[in-house]
Amino acid sequence: MAALEFFFFFLVLLFSAGTQGILGFTNPDGDRALLSLKDQWKNTPPSWEKSDPCGTPWDGITCNNSRVTAMGLSTMGLQGRLEADIGELTELRSLDLSFNPGLIGSLTPNLGNLEKLNILILAGCGFTGQIPDELGNLSELTFLALNSNNLTGPIPPSLGKLSNLYWLDLADNKLSGSFPISTSTSPGLDQLLKAKHFHFNKNQLSGSIPWNLFSSGMELIHVLFDGNKLSGAIPDTLGLVQTLEVLRLDRNSLAGPVPSNLNNLTNVNELNLAHNQLTGTVPNLTGMDHLSYVDLSNNSFEASEAPAWFSTLTTLTTLILEQGSLYGSVPQKVFSFPNIEQVKLKDNSFNDTFSMGDSIGGSLQLVDLQNNQISSVTLSSGYTNSLVLVGNPVCNTSLSNTAYCQNPDENPKTYATNLANCGNKLCSPDKKLNPQSCECAYAYEGTLYFRGPSFRELSDSNIFHSLESSLWNKLNLTPGSVFLENPFFNINDYLQIQLALFPPTGKYFNRSEVARIGFAMSNQTYKPPPQFGPYYFIASPYHFQGTTLQGGLYTSGGGGGGSCN
C-alpha cells in the first residue's frame, strides 16, 4: 500500500512540474510586459533568453507569488527606450535602471500606473523630454532619483502629491521654470513635509525661490539649489527649517541681503552662498556652531572689517571669502581653531600687519591671501605649510624671493590608493590592478561626486583611507579591494574621485553582483563617512565576461548582453 501511495505522489509531482513548465511561474501580465521590454531593449542579460522570468529566474527580476515586484538592472549596458509596457508591472515596488546611458527617449506616462512603487531610480541614463505629470500618482514612493539625464521642461507640480517622499533628486538635467508651489487647485513642492533631500542643482531653474517653499514643519537636511539661474532674494523662511545640514545656493544670480535669521540654522555644517549678487553686510553666522565649511565668495557685500564670527566658529575646517570687500587685519584667532585646514581670503582689501599669532591649529595647511593690501608680515615659526602672499605690497620688499611670494602649485600631488605591494606589475588597458591581490581584473568603475563635504584640504590620506574601508565594508567586498585616485574639487565645487571596486574571486563580477553594487550606490544604501556629506555616483559601463566594447558599451554582439557568469 505504501508503495502505491508513493507512486501516486510521484505522478502528482510529475504532473505539477509539467504544468509549471508549460504555464510558467510568472503572472501573464508581467510575463507579457517583460517579454515586450526584452524585445525593445538590446543587451539584456543572457538569462533573459530563458522562458519564464520568475520561474527560471531572470537576472535583475524579483518575484513574489508569481508577480514581478522588483526590477534591478543597474549598470547592465541596456540600450533602448522605456516604453508603455512597464506600466503593466503593477506589483512593482522597486525599479532601478540606473547607469544605463543607452536607455534613451522620453519617460512614459505609464510609469504612473505603478501605484505600489516605493523606489524609482533612473539616474545616469540618457532620458530626454519632460518629467511626466503621472509620477504624482505614485503615492507610495519614498525615493525618486532622476538625476544625471537630459530631462527638460518644468518640475511637475504633481510631485507635491508624493507625501511619503524623503529623497527627491532631479539634479544634473536641463529642467527650467520655477519651483511649483501649492495653490487651492494644484499641489506643490511645499507639501513634501517628509522630504529630507531637495536636490535640484545643476539645472536651468529660474525665477525667485518662493518664500512659501519652506516651513517649520519640514524635515529637510540637504537643500542643493546650486548651479541654476535663480534670482531674487533668499527667503527668510529658509531659517525655519532647523533640520538643515547642507545648504548650497551658490552659482546663481541671487540678490539682496542674506536673511538675518540664517544663523538659526544651527545644524548646518556646510554653507555655500558663493557666486551670486548678494548685497548688504556680510551675513552674521554667530551661533552656527556645527559649521565646518563656509564659502561666501564672489558677492557684493558692503566693505567692512572681518566679521566677529571669524574668531568664534571653532568648528570650521574651511573658510572661504574671496573677491570680497574685507579690510583691516585678518583675525589671528581663526588660525588657532583645532580643525581649521584652509583659510582662503584672496582678492580682498586686508591691510595692516599680518600675523598668525603663536597658537596655530595643527591641521592648518593653506592660508591664501593673494591680492590684498598687506604691507608687512610677522612670520610664525610654528607654521611651515603654505602661505600665499602674491599680489600684496609686502612682496615688493625683502620677502619678494621667498616661497610666500611665489604663485602656488596649480597641480599638487593627489591621492591614489597605494599599489607599492604590487611592485611594477602592469595590466592591459581594459583591466586594473587589484590592490588587495595584485592581480589584474575587470573592476567596477565610476566617479563619486561629493556635493557637500565638510573639508577642502586633500593632503590627509587618512580621509581617503576611511572612505576605502567604508566602501569594502558596506558593500561586502574583500578588505583592500578598493582603488581610489585623482580626488579634486571640480568647477562645481564637488569633490570628484575615481573609484574602482574589484571582484572577490576571479577576474569578473557577475551580473547580480554588479546590480547589487549599482543599487547600493544609486539608492544611497551605501553611506560614506559623515565628513564626505551628500554624494552621487555615475558608473562606467561594465565589462562582463564574454562581452566586447562597441560604441562605448559592452555587448555580446548577439542581442542579449554578455554570457552567463
Q: In a few lines, what is going on in this structure?
A:
The protein has 565 residues and is of the alpha/beta class.
Please explain how this structure is put together:
The protein is of the alpha/beta class and 565 residues long. 11% of the residues lie in helices and 24% in strands. The chain has 4 helices and 37 strands. Strands 1-2-4-6-8-10-12-14-16-18-20-22-24-27-29 form a 15-stranded mixed beta sheet. Strands 3-5-7-9-11-13-15-17-19 form a 9-stranded parallel beta sheet, with no helix packed on it. Strands 33-34-32-35 form a 4-stranded antiparallel beta sheet, covered by helices on one side. Strand 36 (548-550) and strand 37 form a beta hairpin. It is globular, with a radius of gyration of 28 Å. The relative contact order is 0.09. Residues 1-24 and 557-565 have low confidence and may be disordered.
Mean pLDDT over the full residue set: 91
Percent of residues in helices? 10-25%
Helix count, DSSP H or I runs of 4 or more residues: 4
Share of β-strand residues:
15-25%
What is the topology, as strand order, of the major beta sheet? 1-2-4-6-8-10-12-14-16-18-20-22-24-27-29
Structural class: alpha/beta
Based on CA atoms alone, the radius of gyration comes out at 28 Å
Shape: globular
Major β-sheet profile: 15 strands, mixed
Q: What low-confidence regions span 5 or more consecutive residues with pLDDT below 50? A: 1-24, 557-565
Q: Separation of termini?
A: 47 Å
Overall strand count:
37
